Amino acid sequence: MLYVSTRGKTDLFSAAHAITRGLAADGGLFVPQNIPAMRMVDIKAMERKPYTERAVDVLLQYLTDFSEDELRECVNAAYAPEKFGDNPVPLVQVNDNTGVLELWHGPTSAFKDMALQLLPHLLTRSMQKTGETNKVVILVATSGDTGKAALEGFADVPGTQIIVFYPSEGVSDIQKQQMITQAGKNVKVFGIEGNFDDAQRGVKEIFGNTALSDELAKKGYTFSSANSINWGRLVPQIVYYFSAYADLCKMGQLQVGEPMNVVVPTGNFGNILAGYYAKHMGLPIQTMVCASNTNNVLTDFLKTGTYDRNRDFYATTSPSMDILISSNLERLLYHMSGESDAAVRGWMTQLAENGKYTVEPEVMAKIQNEFAAGYCDEAAVADTIHKTYTDQNYLCDTHTAVAVKVYRDYVAQTGDDLPTVIDSTASPYKFSKSVLTAVLEGNTPQLDEFDMVEELHRVTGAAVPAPLAALKDKAVRFTQVCDRENMSQMVFQLLNL
Ligand SMILES: *Cc1c(COP(=O)(O)O)cnc(C)c1O
Is 426 in the pocket of ligand 1 (CB under 6 A)? Predict the structure, then answer.
């Protein structure tokens, strides 16, 4: 399997190259030249396999420059029971036809672990395959969860250095504490004065500057990315759609071959795009429902065909979805436009220059045939957490609540009641304050966010993930906040350039 850039499809690259580089040299994203097909018998056979073997099956289709044994080593290390428990991705039935896929049983209690525990293994092996002897510098822009998950995944991985930028006022206290207390000799964390999009733009600029990367290469460094623009981040996420389907079949909710819907709380469009790849590999997904918070740029795009980032930015209680530029949409546009790298170049130029673009009706018709979209405001997020807890005895976090609410609206509007998987992307304890406030209908006790964890546990009895319980007493290592204009300078200083 070879990879091309969404902005120039003539050059072909290996998976190892795509993973080592993160972003293509022309600024595009790496995509597989074609989407491999999975046979229904192989999907059926997954019913009897553990998650790690389901992962090997899927990864083998895409990472053809890895051997089966290599991939097995990678996934066994990434999804080890010490990190994820016995079942990395439990599917919890909350009613007859709705299952919640809990993607947050990894070390940082958010779904990013699904990809970021595996990526370092894929990356270090990719470096060996491409003959990369430089030290890889992982630059991460984070809206909160990626940063911690990447730090946790890369800490003390030989041959790597990781630098994380987070919006200093845009993450929860717990997210911040998780990052600024990170252990590891090769890690560095900066707050920036700005929002996630500013952080992401800064990182992309550093990547896109070829003069700079040539200079770096001379000094023995290569940049790479752990953001979901990296194919090595995206490909592990395809696995859990297959896994959820296999579990539904195993539980007798579906016969193999029958369709399901999926609902995804969406920010950078990585998670839902992984569902798209699963579907186009042959997994019977009928509709993918894209759920946004008040930052509903994707809802508008999927309904109208115009992507317009010129709008107010809201800091919400689901900060990992506070995004106005969803980078992975570029990959969807590439596939949906009949692999037109020229069209993608045009749209992305318009986005960079005017902050908006409009996709032709024929392309939109194809997209709307597969995706539904909706958004959820802040009051509805709190109301949904409360209702889901009291009516269904299920405690969900703010991001998951967005998906639950958008799904309810979707069913009310369409009557589509196919068996459905709702992605749950964070432990409720990661956003204890918002969740507790919702559960208590606004009667929030005056506690700091760490005592909120204990209080939420006292009120609901739900188990607290061990790393979150230990967080409060960890020593702070990183306090620096930098201007968004100075990100590249910080990187240079740090690398002694
Ligand atoms: C990152 C994240 C999302 C958004 O996922 P995308 O792949 O960026 O769409 C949703 N919820 C949580 C908790 C996250 O950490």
Answer: yes
